[in-house]
Amino acid sequence: MSSNSSSALRPAPLHLLLAFASGGLLTLMVDFNGLVGLYGGAMYSSWVAHGTGTVAALIFLALLRFGPHSSTATDKPRAPLWAYLGGVSGALTVTLTSTTVNTPLALSGTLALGLAGQVLFSLAADRWGLFGLPKRIPRLKDFAALALIFAGSMIIIFGQG
Asked: Which among 16, 111, 94 has a CA at the least distance from the CA of 50?
């Protein structure tokens, strides 16, 4: 493999920083949702999170109307119907995490098991080509990473002495 093709496979430092920052924001979001869930219940927490997101999206869309308009906007393909189901899984995620954060799992256990679930689902999505992804057979190192994440989750949850 040439040096050009191997460097193309490496993420840029900015991408790593952004991924790390998004993980930090996810942790804050789960913590805030758990706090709202503690006082108002898991469903209320989900309503608050999605209500806030809706208001932010409407403001963002209003600001976009004042920007330059693209004449090729009608040339874009339509989103598949399953793309609109993100809100359903998001509402379920907020409800479940708001509940589990306020149990003995706490924030770290909730996030650790959530990460394990995300990796497991991504391996399944790769394997069966879900959501239009190219099919890819998971390799041994993928399962080793999943096992390490799961083992770390168990240490976090049960190793609190």
From this structure: 94
Residue holding tokens 């999170």?
49
d(CA 45, CA 54): 14
Residues 144, 148, 151, 157: is their CA dihedral positive or negative? Answer: negative
Give the domain ranges of the chain.
Answer: 13-72+80-158
Give 47-93 pLDDT, tens digit per residue. Answer: 999 999 999 999 999 998 887 766 555 677 888 887 888 888 889 99
2 pLDDT higher than 70: no
Sequential DSSP letters for 126-139? HHHTGGGPPP-PPP
**This prediction's pTM:** 0.76
**Which residues, including other chains, have CB under 8 Å from residue 82's CB and lie 6 or more apart?**
131
Q: At what angle do helices 42-65 and 13-40 cross, to 10 degrees?
A: 130
- Which DSSP symbol is given to 150? H
Do residues 109 and 156 lie in contact, with contact meaning Cβ atoms separated by under 8 Å?
yes
